[in-house]
Write the structure tokens for this entry.
Amino acid sequence: MKIQKNKSLKNLNTFGIDAKASSFCEIRSINDLAEALRLQNYPTKFIISGGSNILITKDIDALVLHINIKGKEILKEDDEHVYLKVMAGEVWHDMVLWCLDQNFGGLENLSLIPGNTGTAPIQNIGAYGVELKEVFECCEAMNIEDQSIKSFSKRDCNFGYRDSYFKNEGKGKFIITSVTFKLTKRNHKLNTSYGAIEDELKGKGIKNPTIRDVSEAVVAIRQSKLPDPAELGNSGSFFKNPVLSKSEFELFITKHPQARYYKLNNNEYKVPAAWLIEQCGFKGKRFGDAGVHKNQALVLVNYGNAKGSEIIELAHKIMDKVLDTFGIKISPEVNLIK
Ligand code: EPU
């Protein structure tokens, strides 16, 4: 295990922020991880994986551990299902494509999400009507304190909208080392109810879609709306969609009857933050090298050399204006490294 000094993290975060790690180490196995965590000379450790959901606002004075543990293993299977264990450092979309090649269903709506497999449970990634929790069987994670490995069931993970145990009580205590998915081998349960998927399939004249058709539709939709981090630095949705109580929602919709919304249950309504931000006039606006994407107002972008602090400044400007205009508090979905 080699420790590098003063390592630029520009290529390791999808926002493309050029911050430095005082020390840096590539983690390729569970043993590497345990060994690195035990290094006494480096009291502060910082974990980076796919780097697709963080905004780094300053240099990191710590030993940065880059999780790059690879591997896939079929643990068991029957006629209907396969239990696939995927190591944390596998790139999410490559893993999804591999599953399509094997005709394993369940991940197709989650195609083209940036990041690595190990971080997917932390925020219960979701897109186009499906959340990770629907295909999640369990995960393993290393306890940072004593380097023991613990298995977490779906229940242990306490998944919510862009939320889990690992963002709450478990925060800073564990590093996920693998995720096991329960996928279908036949009788795939397709979820094409999301309007944009239906439109995409209809446009191509596909009546009985396969899991690959759904994946291709999702890829086409994402490519048309979301910037490719390889071309324009970003972290996908920067904000979460706010959830309003019934009374808050009624007040809101009376004032803004044209707004889109999604009823979660009898007491909660989700409102698209992108709509609120667009109404405030931010869509496509640029402030120096920080900006709001032209096709999706929920996505903040780095046009080149924006500092993390400039992106945060823009985020605050947006949050304040949305609060002022609609009385609704929106909050970041991305992890802010301050
Ligand atoms: N909308 C606007 N202006 C915009 C963009 C969207 O008014 O600039 C409106 C649309 O008209 C639509 C609504 O907002 O009525 C929802 O838009 P969209 O379907 O694009 O989804 P979203 O709520 O903005 C969420 C996720 C995305 C995910 C999509 C699709 C969050 C925070 N974001 O975005 O996730 O891909 O749904 O399921 O929940 C991510 O987490 O990084 C991410 C991209």
User: Anything to note?
Assistant: The radius of gyration is 20 Å. DSSP finds eight helices and 20 strands in the chain. The CA atoms of residues 195 and 312 lie 32 Å apart. The pocket of EPU is lined by residues 127-128, 225-226, 236-237, 240-241, 260, 272, 274-275, 278, 283, 296-298, 333 (CB under 6 Å).
